[in-house]
Amino acid sequence: MATHMDPEEFRRHGHALVDWIADYWAGLPGRPVTPSEAPGAVAARLPAGPPERGDGLTGLLDDLNRVVLPGVTHWQHPGFFGYFPANTSGPSVLGDLASAGLGVQGMLWATSPAATEVEIVMLDWLADALDLPARFRSTSAGGGVIQDSASSATLVAVLAALHRASGGRWREAGVDRRYRVYASTQGHSSIEKAARIAGLGADGVHPVAVEPATLAMDPAALRAAIEADRAAGVLPAIVVATIGTTSTTAIDPLPAIGELCREYGIWLHVDAAYAGSAAVCPELRWSHAGLEYADSYCFDPHKWLLTGFDCDAFWVADRAELVAALTVLPEYLRNAASDSGAVVDYRDWQVPLGRRFRALKLWFVLRWYGVEGLRDHIRSGVGLAAEFADLVRADDRFEIVTPHPFSLVCFRLRDGSPSTGAADTDTDTDTDRVNAELLARVNATGRIYLTHTRVRDRYTLRLAVGAPATTRETVEDAWRRIRDTATDLLDGKAAA
Ligand code: PLP
User: Where are the strands (E) in 285-424, listed by range?
Assistant: First the structure.
């Protein structure tokens, strides 16, 4: 007979675990940002099989310290500048804890009305905070929902677009492979994944050329792609435009793209996974110009808005279209509230049936910070990134390779910078190698962590500010490490 943890035992263990998390956060700056363990090291510290008899969590916290922590990459570390941020925060963790404690499934309004209603209101609050178009509010024909990720949001948008483009036949007949998804060459990999899952195959995505200077989608190239496809009997279904591409935070020109989508009757989905959070600041809302054309839009509070993974906020302008595309109603889910048509059943807005009460963490975060607190967080990231970019610019061995409207700076050592000693014949690859070596050495210090991309086919370093604990001192320290490492590297190279 299983012995369940009684509420008093839970209280005791829970308090200890909360203390452990608080100590972990407090001690983060003293840890190396990334682990230095070989593959398999963490797994080797776990027993070969599950315990036959429960051990009452004896030594649990010691085991977290011994087994897990040495293999953790510390995404909340002040020196974490990799990829995009993946924020969490105290209120977010507490909201998740409350959700886990309630343990409800919010697939139908009837299966826990609060889960649905808090979510509707939180998505409206967020729409207010970002000043999104009125058509996305629950009080209009649209509405918002929490998806697990921006990838799922894109998938759901593609499915709804296929449904619309086929005049509703997609649902019964399945996909017609002639439909096309358009995205810039800089669009996120989740767009191809969505096309593949939707049955269009990777060939179902038509990559659209970008403006060389900004890496934003070229609307003339989009028009040419649509025209050529239509002439060949291909059926344009959806354009996925991006505000803040993953590689460099390029911003696709929504007004021109939106006009085209309107002209050809194509669904416009806007993926602002990382940069959408910036719209809490009025001075950064220019990045969302043209959003009124969008049929759907998403951003990830779990990236840059102090809300732990998973929390993608996704809105549609017409919820009836989305529900028509995804709804399936077996007898065992029928209930009077759904039949009345007076409630939202979020199972029809997403791929899975079941869903957690994720709106609680959004509520906790919004209550704790207020919109003003969220703005402070975004402004801090944008400001520190601008300061970092100034430091890079002041060193003529380096170049900034793309605009940096948000908190990501893309930079590299220049070709033929005085001391690279780059061979005339092979400058590109030589400088690429030097930049790759610079990144490896900087990351090996363990104090900061950056990642890379390729921009115009050249190896480029990315520094993304956004961890809540990052300060001006951390960013200045990061620059000193990069600068000094570059000096060592280039001097060594010149001497060789
Ligand atoms: N879209 C863009 C523009 C992104 O930058 C990312 C991740 O960085 C994604 C989509 C995927 O995000 P998620 O992990 O929420 O699916």
Answer: 296-299, 312-316, 398-400, 408-413
The answer to whether residue 2 scores a pLDDT higher than 80 is no
Crossing angle for the helix pair 150-165 and 189-197, nearest 10 degrees? 50
Residue 412 β-bridge partners: 399
Give all strands (DSSP E) within 343-425, no chain letters.
398-400, 408-413
CA gyration radius, the chain: 25
Q: Is residue 327 part of a domain?
A: yes
Q: What is the mean pLDDT of the chain?
A: 95
Average pLDDT in the 321-327 region?
Answer: 96
Two tokens at 97? 């804890």
* CA–CA distance, 287 with 185 (Å, rounded to integer): 19
Q: Is residue 257 part of a domain?
A: yes
Within-domain flag for 383: no
Instruction: Kindly report the CATH number assigned to the domain that includes residue 258.
Output: 3.40.640.10
pTM: 0.96
Give residue 288's pLDDT: 98
Quote the ligand 1 centre to 407 CA distance (angstroms). 16
Ligand 1 centroid – CA 402 distance (Å): 20
Position 180, amino acid: R
Q: Which of 87, 271, 277 for a ligand 1 pocket mutation test, highest count of atoms within 8 Å of Cβ?
A: 271
Is there an atom of ligand 1 within 6 Å of 453 CB?
no
Which residues constitute the domain of residue 142? 97-364
Output the CA 6–ligand 1 centroid distance in Å.
Answer: 40
